[in-house]
Write a structure and sequence with these properties.
The protein has 71 residues and is of the alpha/beta class. It is built from 2 helices and 3 strands; from the N terminus they run βαβαβ. Helices cover 27% and strands 21% of the residues. Strands 2-1-3 form a 3-stranded parallel β-sheet, with helices on both faces.
Length: 71
């Protein structure tokens, strides 16, 4: 199973970080490979177009969009 996380800084982490993040926890529960392509400060439109530009869309099983709404 392949998972990708797209969005703002919540999805800008690294799979090699010593601290587990949301996508890391989900992927471990599902025994899946994952990639995070978030960018700090990105909004929903950025995430949407990043997904459209993603080259391996056909190989994905799950796409998680995350965007923290600032107050």
């Amino acid at each position: 199973m392949n998972i990708i996380g797209i969005g703002d800084s919540y999805m800008a982490g690294s799979r090699y970080s010593p601290d587990p993040n949301y996508l890391h926890i989900v992927a471990n529960k599902l025994n899946a490979e994952y990639e995070m392509i978030g960018m700090s400060g990105a909004g929903p439109w950025n995430a949407f177009f990043k997904f459209l530009d993603y080259k391996n869309k056909d190989e994905l099983d799950v796409v998680i969009f995350a965007d923290r709404k600032s107050t």
